[in-house]
Hints:
Blueprint: E1 3-6, H1 39-51, E2 58-60, H2 67-70, H3 76-87, E3 90-92, E4 98-100, H4 103-122, E5 128-131, H5 153-165, E6 170-174, H6 181-186, E7 193-200, E8 222-227, H7 233-251, E9 255-260, H8 277-294, E10 299-303, H9 312-324, H10 339-343, H11 350-362, H12 366-369
Parallel strand pairs: 1-2, 1-5, 5-10, 6-7, 6-9, 7-8, 9-10
Antiparallel strand pairs: 3-4
Helix pairs in contact: 1-9, 4-5, 7-8, 7-11, 8-9
Bound molecules: zinc ion (ZN).
Amino acid sequence: MTTGLVWDERCFWYDFGDSRSLFGAHPHIQPGSHIETPESKRRILNLLAASGLLAQMRESRPSPVGAGDLCLVHDEAYVESVRALGASGGGSLGPGVPVPAGGYELATLAVGGTRRAIDAVLRAEVDNAYALVRPPGHHAERDHGMGLCIFANVAVATKLAMRDHGLRRVAIVDWDAHHGNGTESAFYEDPSVFTLSIHQDMVIPGRGAVCDAGRGAGKGYNINMPLPPGSGTGAYLAAIDRVIAPALRRFHPELILVASGLDACASDPTARMLLLSDSYRFMTARLLELAGELCGGRLVMSHEGGYDPTATPFCALAILETMTGIRTGVQDPFGPLREEELAGHQRLQPHQEAVIAQAEALLGTPRCAQQTS
Length: 373
Ligand code: ZN
């Protein structure tokens, strides 16, 4: 299996600045580094190199996308506001949306990295691919950035893939711990892109409910699984096996994308989920299997969140070991997932099961069953 890894040193240079920027000019927050530092992402790359896996992957670099490409998802005025702010020394477009000097160009590289990974798979240069990009993108809406996301990396790259490669059906699975509101918005009325998000309930206020299932022609083509805090491997695997797998089998995508946030990891400071590196290994194996069954193995992941600099790289390594089919022998210091954990706190709990059952019920709706061919 040849796995592509798209990365660029400059993606690590997007500077989110001071921790106070999330809260405006709050007078009582001590100055300090922002939670979104390059460190957890750079450490992924470094662990891939140290483990020897990087040498067995096919690396490539992104090209930035143009403003016209961004406007497939975003308003021209918003794109221009990011460009102008970055060109005039930087500033903020609101809480959680800092734009440093030169930030526009760096943010367009994150979109370009996702696009490059997709192109590499669709051109059969590699079997599957991971875009290690930053800043993240899945919260960015049409006319504003949000939650550390400037441009909608996955959504724009999906539009580009459909335009440039003539794809008719794309599935996007978002396993970031926070709801992929921007991706959902971009395709909410679009039956050609099936968006599925597993996330921690109520973290993004007003978004990510099970009943948000799409609108108009897109009704039935958006599935949210807002799991309760404390959900672990059992809940995530049940969400994939009972909802995502049957939904994808009906939809029959030509490409499966994953908005790969790793902040559902148990030690992440921004969420309260319980995943371990092996959880991501098992989840990746299932999606690889689905991609193999449905779309010639075309699986592309684009990096989103993940803020524990120690644990996040081991989650990414588990994903990429699975995608490459290579075990490096590197031991996760947090340990393997043991059988007793799957029978204990990592198992599917009744209150988590209830959410999955609600999402499962959506699969019976006529729209969802109405597969395009
Ligand atoms: Zn997140």
